[in-house]
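Q: Please design a sequence for this.
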């Protein structure tokens, strides 16, 4: 898996939408703000499963899957639409340096104390520096938190921007996981863009694709488990739980919270108590 986590990963995942650099404004809204607005019905989706069986999704007719491996699925539509699912990178807690070159599996530095919206902006800014494109003037019109307690900071972002194909609308589900004992942490995101003139017509289709995404438990655990294994608390050690057993338990719980709370968008009240 680590050989697949290079700087090219973040560039391809972000640049699939034609983005270059970022100027962000936004506001926090209620959970209802992330729901699709009225418009055309969703197009029929055809099932697709990645060759390595790590993930599956529904693909609209006329769209092409451009990547399917390690839980990541990327696709593009005939009119400039783009959806990228299951993306993950490792960052280190520290001062942000746009365009910073990767050091092994560590893609970049990012202050963990930053807000989830600031981290989202930094991710796009970093991708912009890596590809050197024009400013697309991204505006976040709503930022809805997904509270996952000790597991991660997460949010759903809606907004608009301009790329080489013209004005676009986008939706992202973005998470910053809890840092490990060495200050390393992971970012996880799903992202869709639609040409602005097709937004009302295709919003429901993009939502249907996002909702149809499924990732295998093993692939999701590999994507989000910390770089440094967690240290079990004294109570777990006294109960006979080894470091390996504790790490596996934490990975299972984190994967469940991410799958149910972010990927499937289950209400907070329906999530296990350890997600809160």
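A: Design:
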């Amino acid at each position: 898996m680590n050989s697949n986590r290079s700087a090219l990963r973040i560039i391809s995942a972000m640049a699939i939408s034609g983005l270059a650099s970022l100027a962000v404004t936004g506001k926090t809204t209620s959970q209802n703000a992330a729901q699709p607005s009225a418009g055309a019905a969703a197009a029929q989706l055809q099932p697709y499963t990645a060759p390595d069986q790590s993930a599956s999704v529904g693909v609209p007719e006329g769209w092409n899957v451009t990547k399917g491996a390690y839980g990541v699925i990327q696709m593009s539509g005939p009119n400039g639409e783009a959806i990228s699912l299951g993306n993950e990178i490792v960052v280190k807690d520290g001062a942000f340096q746009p365009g910073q070159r990767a050091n092994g599996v560590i893609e970049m530095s990012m202050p963990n104390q930053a807000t989830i919206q600031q981290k989202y902006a930094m991710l796009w800014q970093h991708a912009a520096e890596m590809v050197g494109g024009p400013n697309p003037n991204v505006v976040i019109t709503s930022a809805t938190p997904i509270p996952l307690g000790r597991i991660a900071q997460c949010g759903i972002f809606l907004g608009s921007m301009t790329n080489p194909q013209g004005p676009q609308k986008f939706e992202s589900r973005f998470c910053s996981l809890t840092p490990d004992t060495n200050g390393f942490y992971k970012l996880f995101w799903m992202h869709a863009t639609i040409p602005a003139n097709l937004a009302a017509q295709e919003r429901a289709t993009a939502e249907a694709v996002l909702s149809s995404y499924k990732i295998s438990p093993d692939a999701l655990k590999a994507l989000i488990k910390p770089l440094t294994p967690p240290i079990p608390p004294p109570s777990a050690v006294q109960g006979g739980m080894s470091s390996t057993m504790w790490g596996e338990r934490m990975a299972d719980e984190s994967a469940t919270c991410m799958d149910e709370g972010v990927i499937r968008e289950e209400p907070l009240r329906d999530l296990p108590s350890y997600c809160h």
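Q: Thanks. Anything notable?
A: Residues 37 and 110 are 34 Å apart (CA to CA). Residues 1-13, 15-37 have pLDDT under 50 and may be disordered.
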